[in-house]
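FW: tagging you since you asked about this chain on Friday. Here's the raw sequence from the shared folder, copied in full. Didn't touch anything.
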Amino acid sequence: MKTRTLRLLTLLLLFTFFLYECKDKEADSLEPANTELSNQLDKLEMAPTTLEETPDIKLVPGKVEPSAKTVELNNSLSTVTQGNVPASVSKAAEEVSTSLTDAEVKALNQITPAQATKTVVNSDQVRSILNKATGDVKLQAYLSLLTAAKVDGLPDGGRTSGVTEGTASNNAAVEAGNTDDCIARANEKFEKTRERLDDSKAKDLDRINDAYNKDLERIQRNLEKCTGENSAAHFEALRQVGIKIANDALAALEKAKPFLRPGQYEYLKALINVQLLDYLAKVNELEAAKIGTCTEIAAIAKARAEETKNSNTARVEANYNEAIVKAIELRDKMIQNCHNQGSGK
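HL: got it, structure written out here
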């Protein structure tokens, strides 16, 4: 009787131990989310992508401005009174007298601002006088300042660094059809991680598309602005600015005439006309300069915007693929642990 009881107790103990062992292994296989690998999958994110900005490629229009000495002289003319002739006024008259001949002074003073057409500016006589004034160190400071048009933001001819795209494995789910709970949990964890990475990638691509659309809007605005700044009306407006400066200076000179010494009036009038003719000649030069049509500049800008978009997309794809490769690596290690548990290791 005791022997039978002892045998029964022994069998019960063995059966209990067997059930305990199976339960522990089953519990382990059903809890991959509690492993360190699973936690790493939960925390896995795409590396942040710093998007490259598209340079603002646009035409910066040229301009013609009166020199500082011209502004000073014109301001001084308006302050001339009896017994008060500013030194800048006297000096300007003296410099003209030693730089231009009487015949040149007379020829200049026969031209009024209203008569300063393109034909007059381009006449041999005026061109000769302007060339002489341009080469004279004393008169150079009174001539207009020309800033040529340019295109800002042009590519530098190439990039200094490239983007290498990562490659995501096609091994999307090792043993995906396996019904083992441990392996199924590992694959489920991987799929959730991939969904999160897909969402991050989609958001980055949306940012890229938004930036690209804004680039196109800016390019269109620049095109419209460029077209206006290269129109005949734009250059005519520039000419009118120069004519107004000359008319204001001539009006001030007429008021100052009674207080000037003999000859000063003629020399100063000739200087004002030289300034005007030089100003108008430089406006003509700006108008004739062709550094690229507005549509050509817009085409370059669009190509660069497309290039930037593609480059940014490649960066996002590379970061996404790198994260996916890491996720697959973690998932595969989890599945390997499942096999190890199943073999009793």
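FW: Confidence is low (pLDDT under 50) at residues 15-30, 157-174.
HL: agreed, and The beta strands are 58-60, 63-65, 145-147, 150-152.
FW: great, closing this out.
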